[in-house]
Amino acid sequence: MIEKKETREARISFQDLKSLLQAIFVNNSTAAETADILAENCAACERDGALGHGIFRVPGYVDSLRSGWVDGLAVPNATRLGPSFIRIDARNGFAQRALAAADPVIRRAVRETGIAIAATRNSHHFSALWPDVEPFALSGYMAITAVNGLANVVPHGGRQAVYGTNPIAFAVPVHNAQPLVVDQATSVMANGEVRLHALAGKLVPDGTGVDCEGNPTTDPHAILAGGALNTFGGYKGSSIALFVEILAGAITGGQFSFENDFTGFSGAQTPKAGQLLIVIDPNWGGSTNIESRLALLCSQLIDAGQDRLPGARRFANRAAAERSGIPIAKGELQRFRTLAGE
Known about the structure:
Blueprint (H helix, E strand, L loop, with lengths): L1 H7 E4 L1 H13 L5 H16 L10 H10 L9 E4 L4 E10 H19 L1 E10 L5 H9 L3 E6 L20 E5 L7 E5 L6 H10 L8 E2 L5 E2 L2 H5 L3 E2 L5 H17 L20 E9 L9 H14 L8 H13 L1 E4 H10 L3
Helix pairs in contact: 2-3
């Protein structure tokens, strides 16, 4: 079995994968700067084992670009409207490019006021959230973000989708350790994971979602074909999904998840969403010793029996990929090389 797997699998370095993905994006009407950012993001997700947001997403990016649904050439605009408040218009482009454009403005606001709130609208977010917050934790800040998306989650007790998977994420620095990074959907399962289950012919756990008639189902195909996911934690998770909808869809000046309409854009997959990002300098006004305090908290969690900290598996996968390369099925690698024009 091991030998068969090795014949089907290739290993590729992070930089080579990034270069390959960058060529794919450039070949599909994406500006070079945007292509570089998207390639870095997708390759990082694949490297860290966030497979639902890695190269699996590339065909969706390509189809959305080819359909005209998203503008790969868009140049975002970031405007600081107050000491700490920044509005970002992605201009129907990708959220990652918009956040990168606003990064210097955000960091300047944090240095000057201790906090920055960045509200992004007219953006397409099609990735994990940890890449958006981890860099700020590496700079000693705490970052919190939320994004809405395509309506594919029913509110608790509801019969049709209203919310997106509406993920939330935060990252904080920890003394003598990798930052603590939490990234999770407010649905029972991320949509990308449901799609991976469908491709693998695997059922999803009980309680994951409903079919098009609102009946509980463990069939991922039924969830994806007009059905919907459930929120985690019953009505409590549903309330958090509502909170994300307000943060990302209302405060940003963006749109709600249920307002996404792909009509006329065949193949489009990237949800047009809003994103709210909050970055805090925890030592503003004097040291709070937060990194050491969080190291104590993390050690207490492990001592209490928690087997690993959130994000630890991503860091372990990252270290393994740096040593041995990123594993990719040979057929998949060849398909991407074709898309890149090689």
